[in-house]
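Ex. 9. Protein: Intraflagellar transport protein 88 homolog.
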Amino acid sequence: MENVHLVPEEEEDDLYTGYNDYNPTFDGEDLHNDEGFQQAVRTSHGRRPPMTAKYPGTAIGGRPIGTAYGEDSCQGRKGEGLQESRIPVGTAMGRPMTGAVQDGAARPMTAVRAAGYSSSIARGSVFDPLGQAKGPAPPLETRNEDTPEEKIKILEKKVNDLIEESCLAHARGDLQLSLEKAKEAGRKERALVRQREQTGTADHINLDLTYSVLFNLANQYANNDMYTEALNTYQVIVKNKMFSNAGRLKVNMANIYFKQKNYTKAIKFYRMALDQISNAHNAMRIKIMQNIGVVFIHMGQYSDAITSFEYIMSESPNIKTGFNLILCYYAIGDRERMKKAFQKLICVPLGIDDDDKYIPPNDDPHANMVIEAIKNDKLHQMERERKALAEKYIMTSAKLIAPAIESSFAAGFDWCVDMVKGSQYVELANDLEINKAITYLRQRDFKQAVETLKMFEKKDSRVKSAAATNLSFLYFLEKDYDQADRYAELAMSADRYNPAALVNKGNTEFVKEDYEKAAEFYKEALHNDSSCTEALYNLGLTYKRLGRLEEALDCFLKLHAILRNSAQVMYQLANLYEMLEDPHQAIEWLMQLTSVTPTDAQVLAKLGDLYDNEGDKSQAFQYYYESYRYFPSNISVIEWLGAYYIDTQFCEKAIQYFERATLIQPTQVKWQLMVASCYRRSGNYQKALETYKDIHRKFPENVECLRFLVRLCTDMGLKEVQDYATKLKKVEKMKEIREQRVRSGRDSSARGRREGSAGSGSSSSPINTPPLRASDSGQSNHGTSAKGERLSVKLKTLPGSNEPYEASTQQEIDASYVDPLGPQMQRPKTAARKRTEEDEFADEELGDDLLPE
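Predicted structure tokens for Intraflagellar transport protein 88 homolog:
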């Protein structure tokens, strides 16, 4: 205790005491005069190892321990015991030895050696306190994978990897692979459980892994429409009390029952899931209630569905639930509640920012860059989608309930427009007005539709352009091309970038046959909207009229890349290849057309005509016969089939076709003559004679019929031959007189024209050109140049030996029919967006898609 120095109480608060005290031990100014220090520096005097081996005991045992520069003064004397000298030996500097007594007080020795210093270090060694000179550390011991615990860990990792692979395969759309991976994960997990049971570690089974495996397997079963297996797997999870919150999976089971149309069980499981979900998860409960309402709608229980939807609208209103509630009220015919539900629907908050947020407020470049960055980000896209969905539901609801909530649909639309104007969807009011006009169009009330659309002439540019476009469309359909042109100009002035307005303007120029100008408008429409298929189609028709067939072909090939299954485009391509004298490509496109419209009789007839021109009679017969089967009233097809059977010496089969032609054209004597000729060729002279007599009763002045009657009666030795011969002479004489009168009339008219031209000093004589038939007017290629042009089919009657009515030059029988795509194809298409999908391609139907994009 004598070496313990207590601090006085008055100095307890002074933490810096003693810092200014001077210790002479650290005085290095006189070291060069210290002989001991200089001796130690020059020699190894101070590095002698301590002589401790000859003294027993510890460092505290009583022997003196010197410092690096001191010597121990302990000496043994002969005949005497060991004695210690406690006199310390100081260094030349006066530094006290370790363990020496200083100022009469013994300093305690320390057993801790300073880091990096050793009294027994070898001479010439390097200072290496961290032991880096020993080389790198030995490698870690390899893990022994043969232990049961390591095997279990590896197996667990494999199961997790399989679950992940199954989920990734489902995300790629490979449902079969995802199911296989889920099954394999299930097998591995069962093997893992068995291994734990064998090793006696069943208490450490990973329940989360088991739950993940079963849940993923059930999901993959459901995705592959294996509903029974999915339900069984979900039952395994739900019945296991060790899985927490497994009752929520009853929602998935209810969804499967809904897909199976087992609505009763779906309701049961939805309600069971609802009971197991606490009120803290309100969003989940709302979704389940919405599903319950949808199931009730499918069951036709609208009152129960209304109860669910009304609860949702009172707790957490949303657009879909409000729309479904309106549908239920409409189904039960509750007019007042429909109005209230519509008012609730337009008051549902969307939770999105206004578009003003994305308008640059000033000229700050940094702020503008931020606005440009967020203008098209994922969040803004989601906001736009949510707003578009809300507008769609509101528009559909208004169009649905407008005729039901008031005495007339016009009054209902007006009520809906008034409600919308006072809501956050005020811009939808104009669209509702346009839909009102379209409803008038569907009711064939064109006057009211036009009046409604004319109300928008003084509105803003967007609405004015849309209304003017529809008015131009209407007047174009009514063939009032001046008004159509006027409103097309108005639509263009309101919005020059409106492609529908430009298409309508091009259409008006097309009907004026100003094809170059029409093409310019179509090109401008395509420049503003490259997906405007109407402009591209009409541009192809325009090039076709201008004779620029290669450019027209390029337009329709581009259009075919957009509209892969458009029958109109395929027909135009086939027709263009035919005009370019490439029948093989024309046949190829028509074959594709038959895959889209396999029952179009005119397309099949066109294929038969092309094969006939190529000389392939068997293929031509096949397609003509299919055409006749679908449409047995086409005269040209009937004529070709009858001539084919006569050519192949099957006159009996040709009779049925000519008899049908007789039914279609009873005033045409040539079909009845062909029937009689077929009877005569087949050797049935009696039937032929009866047929000729019947023809003579209907057409008593027909020379060919009388000639055949004379010949048949002569060959058969009948007495009526003289009567028929007399009638034949009279008819021939009357025919000669008639022809003389016609020739004299022509001669007198020609002389009068010559005299008139001579009196006027003209030296040229007019040439009286007889009118050309359709087959003589440059359209004798047996094809249709476009929709609306007529097709001429020339089939020669087969000559017979010594037959009076066939002895003259081979006659051509002309039969014209409308081409496969009807009389409206060549007219340019209007700006309507939808087309009908019938086999006969009419104009676009009027609908909501009249609005420009």
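Check your answer against this statement. The first helix runs from residue 35 to 42.
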